[in-house]
């Protein structure tokens, strides 16, 4: 019988080669079953969503200090210095748009005129001295117990300490006032767990993100594993500009402010379930947790835990995302 032509055998040779190339023995890659792939993805997201640190603002977050703390201290300092000035609740609320106590006084007097007790020569030194006197009065109010912590603060701090989450306070207020508030109202053992970044440690105050960027750098933190807790519009702007997830707990002066960019907005951290803010709640706001969600969630402000069926979205300019 005549031998087959090489050209006639070519299609069979090519087919055999392709089969061998795609056989299980010829490939080194492994295709995970759906359940294993999902498990690996879940483990990766869980690691990404582990909270490393909570960065608290002070005034309005730890305690509702502005109206009946700082405002009163300013007014008493004015009176003791024979300055004919008294800030009303409404006026002080407007002045809170300026971050920092010295800056707040200057902004007010640049608008209405400086008092005769503050001539041009040595004016800013007098402002600094007046602010120091105001800080002393504010600390007296804290020591007297006139300014309590807000609901849920101690509970969340204790949970964070128990779980090894690092803590910091980042505030435009005077460092002495912030440290005294934390130590007096939380106790020295809790206070030892906090790093304080306050006052003039950065040149630009909120809404600049400088105070938060300093904390991230000093504490060597991963911003994607941190949450900032703020209460005001300018604080929220600072948090968003820092690239850190932000939760807003509204205070007496900030109820109607714009919190665009916040991941969640609550009335308070809370002490009574359901709906209290926990470490797990904060972890749900981290980028890894949000990216892992397969359900639609609000990319702007959300009310209470984003995974509760009762969450409520506030109308902030934002967009839906998967």
UniProtKB/TrEMBL annotation:
Residues 1-21 form the signal peptide. SUPFAM superfamilies: HAD-like. The keyword Membrane does not apply. Gene3D superfamilies: HAD superfamily/HAD-like, Putative phosphatase, domain 2. Keywords: Signal. Pfam families: Hydrolase. PANTHER family: CBBY-LIKE PROTEIN, XYLULOSE-1,5-BISPHOSPHATE (XUBP) PHOSPHATASE. It comes from the Eukaryota. This is Uncharacterized protein. It comes from Thalassiosira oceanica (Marine diatom). NCBIfam families: HAD-SF-IA-v3. Transmembrane segments: none annotated. The keyword Ribosomal protein does not apply. GO terms for molecular function: hydrolase activity.
């Amino acid at each position: 019988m005549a031998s087959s032509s090489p050209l006639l055998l070519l299609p069979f040779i090519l087919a055999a080669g392709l089969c061998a190339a795609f056989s299980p023995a010829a490939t080194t890659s492994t295709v995970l079953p759906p359940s294993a792939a999902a498990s690996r993805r879940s483990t990766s997201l869980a690691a990404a969503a582990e909270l490393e640190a909570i960065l608290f603002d002070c005034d309005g977050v730890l305690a509702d200090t502005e109206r009946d703390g700082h405002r009163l201290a300013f007014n008493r300092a004015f009176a003791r210095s024979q300055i004919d000035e008294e800030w009303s609740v409404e006026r002080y609320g407007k002045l809170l748009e300026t971050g920092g106590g010295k800056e707040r006084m200057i902004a007010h007097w640049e608008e209405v005129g400086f008092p005769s007790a503050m001539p041009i020569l040595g004016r800013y030194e007098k402002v600094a001295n007046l602010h120091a006197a105001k800080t002393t009065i504010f600390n007296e109010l804290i020591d007297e117990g006139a300014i309590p912590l807000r609901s849920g603060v101690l509970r969340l701090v204790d949970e964070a300490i128990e779980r090894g989450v690092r803590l910091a306070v980042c505030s435009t207020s005077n460092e002495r006032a912030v440290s005294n508030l934390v130590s007096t109202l939380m106790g020295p053992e809790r206070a030892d767990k906090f790093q304080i970044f306050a006052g003039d440690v950065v040149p630009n105050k909120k809404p600049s993100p400088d105070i938060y960027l300093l904390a991230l750098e000093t504490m060597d933190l991963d911003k994607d594993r941190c949450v900032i807790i703020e209460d005001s519009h300018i604080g929220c702007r600072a948090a968003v500009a820092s690239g850190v997830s932000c939760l807003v707990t509204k205070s007496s002066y900030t109820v109607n402010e714009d919190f665009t960019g916040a991941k969640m907005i609550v009335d308070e951290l809370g002490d009574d379930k359901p709906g209290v803010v926990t470490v797990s709640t904060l972890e749900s706001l981290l980028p890894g947790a949000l990216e892992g969600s397969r359900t639609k969630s609000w990319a702007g402000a959300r009310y209470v835990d984003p995974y509760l069926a009762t969450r409520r979205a506030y109308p902030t300019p934002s967009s839906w995302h998967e």
